[in-house]
Amino acid sequence: MQIFGKILGAFFGFLFGGPLGLVFGLFLGHQFDKARRLNQSGFNSSGFGRGPSQAERQNEFFKSAFAVMGHVAKAKGQVTPEEIQLASTMMERMNLHGEQRKAAQDAFRDGKESDFPLSDVLERVKISSGGRFDLLQFFLELQVSAAFADGSLHPSERQVLHKIAQGLGFSAEQLERRLQMQEAAFRFQQQGGSFGGHQGHGQSSGWQQASQQNQLGDAYKVLGVSESADGKEVKKAYRKLMNEHHPDKLMAKGLPPEMMNVAKEKSQEIQNAYDLIKKVKGFK
C-alpha cells in the first residue's frame, strides 16, 4: 500500500495549515500515491513527444486486466485461496510462465489493495485499447468470466462489475445482459457443450429431456437471443458475436498475444452454442 504521499502531505499540511491543512495535505498525498502506484505498476504514459507503441499498449491492457481481476476478487472482503487459484487458472489458460506470470501476479496483488485506483486504471484501459469496442468488451467479459469462475456471483462482485462497466462506457443494461450470457455459458460448459452433456447411468428419460431442454435454453442465452428466435435471428446473432470475438480480429486491434487462448475459448463457446441450436432445430 502506498502511504508515503499521505504521510508527507499530512505532516506539511498540519505544519502550515493546522487541522484544515492536515485534511488538504492528506488529499494531495493520496493523489500523489495514486499516481505513484500507476507509474510503478506500468500504467503510465509513454512520455512527451510520442504515443505508446503497440507493445506498450498491449502490456498496459494485460497488466490492467489482472489488476482489475484482483480488485474484483477482493470485493467480497478477504481474498480466499479459491480466488487466488482462479487467478492461477486464468494464467494457465493464457499459458503464462516466468516473467509474464510474475507480472500478472504482481498486477493481481496490486488490485487487492484497498486504495487501488480503479477509475484511473480503467481510463488507462480505454487509452491502451484505443477506445475500440471489441477490446473493451473483451476486457469486461474477462472480468465477468473471472467473477463467475466459482459458479456464482456475490452481490459485492456484481456491484464492482457495474463500476467497471460504467468506467469502460457500458450501460447497466449491457452489463446485466453479459452477466446472463456468462451464467448460461458457465452452465453450458459444465454440461459439455453438446446436446445431452454428461448423463449419468440410471437417470430417467424425463430427467434427461428436461436437462437437454435447459441446455438448449442456455445455448440460446449464450448467443443472446430468445428461444423463440428463428433461424435468421440466430444466425445474425452468431455472426455478430463471432465477428466481435474472432481471435485474429482482436489481435489485429491490439489484444495482447497472451490472451489469444482465452479469445479462442470464447469463440469456440459461441460456435458450440450455435451448432447445438442448429442441430436441434434443424436450421441451415
UniProtKB/TrEMBL annotation:
| Keywords for the protein's UniProt record, in alphabetical order | Cell inner membrane, Cell membrane, Chaperone, Membrane, Transmembrane, Transmembrane helix
The molecular function GO annotations come to: protein-folding chaperone binding
Database matches in PROSITE patterns: DNAJ_2
| Gene3D superfamilies membership | DnaJ domain (1.10.287.110), TerB-like (1.10.3680.10)
Q: Which residues lie on this side of the membrane: Periplasmic?
A: 1-6
Cite the J domain residue spans from the record. Answer: 218-284
> Where does this protein chiefly localize?
membrane
Q: Where in the cell is it found?
A: Cell inner membrane
Q: Which domain of life is it from?
A: Bacteria
One short Pfam name that applies is DnaJ
InterPro entries, sorted: DjlA, DjlA_DnaK_co-chaperone, DjlA_N, DnaJ_domain, J_dom_sf, TerB-like
Topology versus the membrane: Single-pass type III membrane protein
Q: Which residues lie on this side of the membrane: Cytoplasmic?
A: 31-284
Per the UniProt record, which residue ranges are transmembrane? 7-28
**Secretion signal, residue range per the UniProt entry:** none
Q: Which GO terms describe its cellular component?
A: plasma membrane
Quaternary structure note: Homodimer.
Q: What is known of its domains?
A: The transmembrane domain is a dimerization domain.
Q: What does this protein do?
A: Regulatory DnaK co-chaperone. Direct interaction between DnaK and DjlA is needed for the induction of the wcaABCDE operon, involved in the synthesis of a colanic acid polysaccharide capsule, possibly through activation of the RcsB/RcsC phosphotransfer signaling pathway. The colanic acid capsule may help the bacterium survive conditions outside the host.
Q: What is this protein called?
A: Co-chaperone protein DjlA
What organism does this protein naturally occur in? Vibrio celticus
The gene name reads djlA
